Amino acid sequence: MSNPLNVLMGLLLAGLISSGCRAGGADRSGARSEDATTVAEAVSDSVEIAVRSLNESYVRAVAAKDTAAMLDLFANEALVLIHNAPPIEGRAALRQVYTGFFTAVPDASMTLTADTVVVAASGELAYEIARYTVEGTAPGGIAWQDQGRYLVTLHPERGRWRIVAIAGASELPPPGAAADTAQ
Q: Which terminus has fewer CB within 10 Å in the chain: N or C?
């Protein structure tokens, strides 16, 4: 069984969405028209605002340890892939993981910094590449921290933008790995 701290830490990776890429449209000849570019920019701006709002909600839900609010941010069939843990698929599995994490690490905190955000020209998909830091006190009073990068994909569902998939990767060795390599 995987370490619940690793599983939950990965769930905290859903990210600071801070800026969107602009995409222009094309006319039948393939040339970009000013009107199409303006419409595409408006779509991108609208998506960016929605994604920023989702991120703010995510950070507030983590701070409040609010599992219901966290689940509302995910698509029904969301998939989370993180280091040292099996895939977490669907809202039921996410509920179990978040509830366990918020109970086990009540002082968990995080920072998220977006490096790249891209909004598809259609406005139907967005993704972000970002950095995270997560820390807290594990059961038994053991302080822990992790940092790394993640990729989050978002898509509109049930009338709002939702997290469809997260893939995270720690930049730190697994607990005990540094001691193992010194031997």
A: C
Q: Where are the domains of the chain?
A: 4-182
pTM over 0.85: no
pLDDT of residue 165: 97
Task: For 66-96, give one letter per residue: b (16+ CB within 10 A) or e.
Answer: ebeebbbbbbeebbbbbbebeebeeeebbee
Q: Can you tell me which residue has the tokens 């669907």?
A: 90
Q: What is the pLDDT of residues 73-118, one digit of tens each?
A: 999 999 999 888 899 999 999 999 999 988 888 898 887 777 777 8
Structure tokens at 130: 């970002």
Residue 105 CA to residue 94 CA, distance in Å, equals: 16
Domain 4-182 sits in CATH at 3.10.450.50
End-to-end CA distance of the chain: 25
d(CA 115, CA 56): 17
Neighbours of 102 (CB within 10 A): 18
* Residue 177 CB partners (closer than 8 Å, separation 6+): none
Using pLDDT thresholds of 50, 70 and 90, give the confidence band for residue 173. Answer: confident
